[in-house]
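pasting for ref
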Amino acid sequence: MSGTRAEVPRSISERLRDRPVVRDRAVTSSHGAGGKAQAALLEGLLFESYGSDELRREEDGAVLHTAGAERLVFTTDSFVVTPREFPGGSLGRLAVFGTVNDLAVMGADPRWISVALILEEGFAMDELRKVADDIAAAASEAGVAIVTGDTKVVERGRGDGVYVNTAGIGFLPEGLDLGAHRVVPGDRVVVSGNIGDHGTAVLLARGELAFAGDVRSDCGTVTELTRALLEAAPGTRWMRDPTRGGLASVCAELAAGSGAGIVLNETALPIRPTVRAACELLGIDPLYVANEGKVVAVVPEDEADSAVEALRRLEGGGAAAVVGTVAEDSAGVVLLETAVGGKRVVDQLVGDPLPRIC
């Protein structure tokens, strides 16, 4: 049945009828963590006010049709991280790569970005120059041009030094159609490398954990990874970068959007021993820890090996692996086959175990 389409997911109008209700009286950090609280905020409040059909698809970017034959992908994101520099990355690099990566996993060729800064009065110019230099270097590495921007200053004590917002535009190749609607039973779930590196690196950089481990963030562009994957597996159905909420949350979104079941294999998940140890110490599941330079993709079964081989030949893809399968049963649910032979449900993230990491 690998060529049979999964059960058609609920239409937008059906989802609106039973959208979650926002019951919180105030915003909490959980509303920005990429899990259940954020989903409730989007569907139960923001989309109610200004949600379009394009927004309600909840993709990493919007596909825009020009007057000609070209299609553009447009995306935007905001960034705040503590500390602003951490092993393997920084706020400035994160702001560029995060937006470029959203374009790349939509299948687009990233071309242009904007950079807007919200600065707090009293923020040191030397620190601002470092952020600006990192933004410039990252844009050069990613091959995108910074073409517009904005700067605002808020009163002392009313900000956190600096917040960065970036938006990006890229070209979508003709004929490319990616999305949860294309996923079918029998497809394979591929991840481009070790998961959980970014969130763990930021946590350790805060010095709040008595743990000695050399963990570097995977903060970087995934453009070469997505290009290689699409070339090696031209039937690729769907891609996403597993940032806030980690691999677990994007798989939960995929299951909900496709109407299919997703079965992950615990023994196949690429996780560094130091990341696993840090997560165990904190009682955090590495499946929910953010990444900033990884790709999760769904590819046809007969293209999975080629996809993994192509990724492993690239920097950042050495630990690429097939980690799961799209199932006919368990519609809309993510299951994890554990190392001891059991199965457990992998739900969307609840709460915000690692705040201010992206």
